[in-house]
Amino acid sequence: MKTKLKFLIKQSLKKKLDTKWFKVANIIILVLLIGVVNIDRVISFFGGDFENVTKVYVLDEANSFDLLKNNFDAMSSSLEDLGNYELLRTDKTVEELKEEIEDTEDIVLRIKLNDVTYIEADITSFDPVGMVTEQLLQMSLNSVKSAYVLNSSGMSEEEIAALTSNVVLNKEVTNPDLDENAEGKDIVSSGLILVLIVPFFLLITMLTQMIGAEINDEKSTRGMEIIISNVSPKTHFLSKIISSTLFVIVQALLLIFYAVVALLLRKVLSVAASGGVSSEVSGFIADTLETVKNTGVLDLLMKGAPFIILLFLFSFLAYAIVAGVLASMTTNIEDYQQLQTPLMIILMVGYYIAIMASAFEGALFVKIVSYIPMISFLVSPVIYLLGQISLLELVLSTLICGGVTYLLFHFGLRIYKVGILNYSSQDLWKKIFKSMKEK
User: Fold this and answer.
1) Model confidence over 404-433: pLDDT tens digits?
2) What is the DSSP letter of 359?
3) Cα separation, 79 vs 85, whole angstroms
């Protein structure tokens, strides 16, 4: 049995890995990951320029340039990721500046006095001004106008400065149980969704589709009769489960490898072009890692990693078993797609609960769901790393999932034996329920 099982696993795994679609898909994934991680370089390569500075030429007829520049610089500094600006005073005419800003993103701003509205301004640009830039100029000019009006009222400079300065907000939080790292945990939660939930959701989907397609292919070509005449249904069932699970594990390891390659390439490009957006992104990554460290997630991960890995493994096996059983009950891929719908609904429920887990911190419902097999692998690791459940609870969730996986195989094998050589849906469910009672 062991020899036949190894042979079937080897053949099935080779069939999955040694295909053009697998190689092409992984090349595309690698390119996409590198592109996403180095998105600023990609945009720059195709003509985008993150370092481009938009010059704003100011024709100041209201003697307000210094105040305008101070206000504008203060506001634009908080939006530095959305654009870089430089305000320049000029004595040139508007017509001269129109020729100078042709085919550029530069702007001409003319500030004038008005007897009714005190101050008004004209904006001239080659292309339409972006909404962010226009709002920055609008808010800065409003501040200038307010100061101008106050100055006209006869108030002293100290009084005007005190009146136009921002209100000081003194914050006091009285909740004694408030987590000091709540903000950091929100960042960690977003990271966990990207690192744990989304990839493994996709891998499980791939796993169920793969088993169904392979078993139905063997049934539709009548190759199943030849295989089962040489090996037992149990050996065949095990080979499908193990080979498919090994395949998704290989794919997961490849995804990790691709991510490492993308980050290393990011680091090389950042060193080659120090400063600018690359340095800012690298700094952001460093700050994020520091935040993760401060929230204690790394310590929790070190303690819970073995059980998280086991939980993922048990879940892969559980989905593979159920998918194999469902595929054995059908004779074509269309019927299998319909039959696996409840399985996909269960997976989607776990996916959305895991995403919303951080928003319902301490909720009893989320904790209960973290013990439910085939959902727990999405929910338990996330709320454990967020500190909402203990290591003992994570271990319990893993053990429950492992026990249910064994039961699924034990009873699923009985159904598989009946369904694998069945090519008719007539009385199929009757045969299945009958097989469940057999030992």
Assistant:
1) 999 999 888 888 887 777 766 666 566 666
2) G
3) 10
Q: How many angstroms separate the CA atoms of 103 and 88, rounded?
A: 19
Residue 40: its H or E element: helix 39-45
pTM more than 0.90: no
Per-residue pLDDT tens digits for 224-265: 777 777 888 888 889 889 998 899 889 888 988 988 888 788
Q: Looking at 154-197, list the stretches that DSSP marks H as alpha helix, in order from N- to C-terminal side.
A: 157-164, 182-192
Q: What residues contact 32, with CB distance under 8 A and at least 6 apart?
A: none
Q: Provide the 8-state DSSP code for 87.
A: E
CB 211 within 8 A of CB 340: no
Give the whole-angstrom CA distance, residue 304 versus residue 394.
8
- Give the H/E segment covering residue 82: none
Bridge partner residues of 121 (DSSP):
111
Residue whose pair of structure tokens reads 């909404």 in the numeric block: 131
Taking only Cα atoms into account, the Rg of the chain, rounded to an integer number of angstroms, comes to 32
Torsion angles phi and psi, residue 113, rounded to 5: -85, 150
58 contacts 141 by C-beta, under 8 angstroms: no
Q: Are 212 and 203 in contact (CB under 8 A)?
A: no
